[in-house]
């Protein structure tokens, strides 16, 4: 495609219609819900945020606006189809007209799934990729408390199938929040491990959106902006979690990256990370971090100009370096981040060599079935994916 034809291509871009961004934004949730003509929200969160009082503060803000809200705190890490049942029951009992997702990727993904199933019934299995759902759903407000998943700005949710163990990617316009409330102050107490995993997750989103075969000028600008901010601030946020500038920059970068990959898609890292999470209960961001270096190294030679641009935005290569040299610099920096932020290998995480090897064929097939690998600059075979899984074990 020529530059002229690319510029003339009409693209449909999905972005939350309302976004409230900045310190203290969470205190505007009541105004947001009222502006949407809703009055009976269910706040979908996890047990931790329920016990710390964060979820209750949201309910109190809603109550001050005359809004009748209840809390569902039964979300689980890497939500499963079965974990949705109690949430659906609460939504129906409360006669909810809106769903608020409060937390990291798991509560927001849960909120998205509940918003759809509460209206249409059925199973998430019927909605997994390549299905793109654009039907009826309750409106969703997303309030992220981590700087990484970008779920507050995406038209995707990931739910594991209880029967098969498959991590199902479900997408479509109906999962896109109608409003996102992005408040970096909610991340100031994030522990270092979560900061690292979610930060590398955001970087993965941005790089994969930029090198994806579905990338466009709109997503390119957001992806590069996110990469630049993460390059400047991730280490500071990890080593000095109280640094307000770093936390604010990482929160904004995560949202930028979320919008970018929601509209350009992810690629091979995500195709391979979902099965790791499903089989071994590795958090999504950590699974991405385990894979990022090796998958990028594997992909070089197919789109070095794109990887070079990522390296320059990250601040590890200058304009004088050749694209090939800059792309190699990106791989070295990803490895350095992996070591400095103490990302474990599957072996160090506690997976035995026997269990890992036994799971590889099925994980490779699940990665292929997701379709995300097709967006990668170098499209792998199942055998290639199996080799990459073996390469990251130790």
Notes on the structure:
Strand 6 and strand 7 (167-171) form a beta hairpin. This protein has helices spanning 3-8, 29-35, 47-51, 54-64, 85-94, 105-120, 192-211, 217-239, 244-264, 268-280, 284-299, 304-314, 323-340, 346-349, 353-370, 382-392; strands spanning 18-21, 41-44, 70-72, 98-103, 140-144, 156-160, 167-171, 179-182. Helix 11 (284-299) packs antiparallel against helix 13. With 394 residues, it is α/β, with parallel strands linked by helices. The strands form two sheets. It has a six-stranded parallel beta sheet, with helices on both faces. A two-stranded antiparallel sheet has the order 6-7. The radius of gyration is 20 Å and the shape is globular. The protein is built from 16 helices and eight strands.
Number of strands: 8
Order of helices and strands: HEHEHHEHEHEEEEHHHHHHHHHH
Which overall shape is indicated by the principal axes computed on the Cα atoms?
Answer: globular
Mean pLDDT: 95
CA distance, first residue to last residue: 41 Å
Instruction: Provide the gyration radius in Å.
Output: 20 Å
User: Residue ranges: pLDDT <50 for 5 or more in a row?
Assistant: 1-5
The main sheet comes to: 6 strands, parallel
What spatial order of strands do you see in the largest sheet? Answer: 1-8-5-4-2-3
Record the SSE blueprint:
Layout lengths: L2 H6 L9 E4 L7 H7 L5 E4 L2 H5 L2 H11 L5 E3 L12 H10 L3 E6 L1 H16 L19 E5 L11 E5 L6 E5 L7 E4 L9 H20 L5 H23 L4 H21 L3 H13 L3 H16 L4 H11 L8 H18 L5 H4 L3 H18 L11 H11 L2
Parallel strand pairs: 1-8, 2-3, 2-4, 4-5, 5-8
Antiparallel strand pairs: 6-7
Helix pairs in contact: 2-4, 7-8, 7-9, 7-11, 8-9, 8-12, 10-11, 10-15, 11-13, 11-16, 12-13, 15-16
């Amino acid at each position: 495609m020529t530059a002229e034809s690319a510029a003339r291509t009409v693209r449909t871009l999905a972005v939350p219609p309302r976004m409230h961004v900045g310190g203290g934004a969470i205190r505007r949730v009541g105004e947001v819900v009222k502006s949407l003509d809703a009055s009976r929200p269910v706040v979908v969160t996890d047990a931790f945020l329920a016990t710390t009082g964060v979820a209750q503060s949201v309910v109190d803000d809603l109550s001050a606006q005359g809004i009748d809200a209840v809390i569902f705190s039964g979300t689980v890490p890497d939500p499963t189809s079965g974990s949705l049942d109690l949430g659906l029951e609460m939504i129906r009992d409360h006669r909810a007209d809106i769903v608020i997702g409060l937390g990291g990727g798991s509560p927001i993904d849960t909120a998205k799934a509940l918003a759809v199933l509460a209206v249409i019934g059925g199973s998430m299995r019927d909605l997994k990729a390549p299905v793109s759902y654009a039907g009826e759903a309750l409106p969703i407000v997303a309030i992220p408390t981590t700087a990484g998943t970008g779920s507050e700005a995406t038209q995707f949710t990931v739910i594991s199938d209880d029967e098969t163990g498959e991590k199902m990617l479900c997408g479509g316009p109906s999962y896109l929040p109608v409003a996102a409330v992005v408040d970096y102050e909610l991340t100031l107490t994030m522990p270092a491990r979560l900061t690292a995993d979610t930060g590398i997750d955001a970087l993965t989103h941005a790089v994969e959106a930029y090198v994806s075969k579905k990338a466009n000028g709109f997503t390119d600008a957001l992806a590069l902006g996110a990469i630049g901010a993460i390059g400047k601030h991730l280490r500071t946020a990890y080593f000095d979690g109280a640094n307000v500038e770093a936390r604010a920059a990482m929160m904004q970068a995560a949202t930028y990256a979320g919008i970018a990959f929601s509209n350009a898609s992810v690629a091979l890292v995500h195709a391979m990370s979902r099965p790791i999470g499903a089989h071994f209960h590795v958090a999504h961001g950590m699974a991405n971090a385990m894979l990022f270096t090796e998958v990028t190294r594997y992909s070089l030679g197919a789109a070095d100009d794109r990887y070079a641009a990522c390296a320059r935005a990250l601040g590890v290569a200058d304009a004088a370096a050749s694209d090939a040299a800059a792309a190699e610099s990106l791989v070295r920096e990803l490895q350095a981040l992996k070591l400095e932020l103490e990302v474990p290998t599957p072996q160090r995480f506690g997976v035995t060599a026997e269990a890992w090897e036994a799971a590889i064929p099925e994980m490779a097939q699940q990665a292929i079935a997701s379709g995300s690998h097709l967006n990668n600059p170098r499209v792998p075979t199942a055998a290639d994916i199996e080799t990459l899984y073996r390469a990251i074990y130790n």
